[in-house]
Amino acid sequence: MPSPSLHREARELAQRLSGTDEVRLVWHAASNCVELSVRDLETGAGFRIAVARKSALDAFYHPYAYAPRRAEVDRGAGAAIADG
Question: Which 3 state secondary structure label does DSSP give 15?
Fold first, then answer.
């Protein structure tokens, strides 16, 4: 059984499906950062980026406005992480 402290390390703030896209907003307690995660459930492609707390809800509802440009994903620039 996982320790109770593991549950406090990351907390899902919101989750929704839009077509085949799963959009998640997660708060990481250790770093006090909010992460936006978008994943196509059919292909597995997606991205994860850190978002400012004041922009978190807007990013959740408009994730592609916050999506890294393709060149950034290819280079691994910033907080963008290519998933697939």
Answer: strand
Q: Helices then strands (H, E): number in the chain?
A: 3, 5
CB atoms < 10 A from the CB of 20, how many?
10
DSSP string for residues in 29-46: TTTTEEEEEEEETTT--E
Phi and psi dihedrals of 59, rounded to 5? -65, -35
Query: Has this prediction a pTM greater than 0.85?
Result: no
Tell me 62's DSSP state: S
- Selection from 43, 5, 11 nearest residue 24 by Cα: 11
Tokens of 40: 């196509």
Q: Taking the chain (84 residues) in consecutive chunks of 10 residues, what is each chunk's mean pLDDT?
A: 58 96 96 96 94 96 88 44 38
